[in-house]
Amino acid sequence: MCFFKRKKENRQDENEPVVAAIISNPVSSVVFQDMLKENGIPFVCRQQGAGGSVKLLLGGGIVPDYILVSAKNYERARELYEVYLLNEPEEVAFEEEE
Length: 98
Prior knowledge:
Elements: E1 17-23, H1 26-38, E2 43-46, H2 51-58, E3 65-70, H3 74-87
Antiparallel strand pairs: 1-3, 2-3
């Protein structure tokens, strides 16, 4: 008779949070979060350290957002992020007229 439980092999828990994206632009972050909502993927948006307080005091764009999803939804979230990046309009540089 064995009183010790066998350790699980190094399998990642399917509900463990993993970082799906790190986004510095606050507008892009909100758009990506909306994409996750529309596709039924639960997520959490966090900032490292005192980043949330700094973001409140100084505004967005200074501290990046870390978008976390469960491990089971990671692949789908990354697909959405890559599609978003491919379709994101590039910044238009205006030339000055002489």
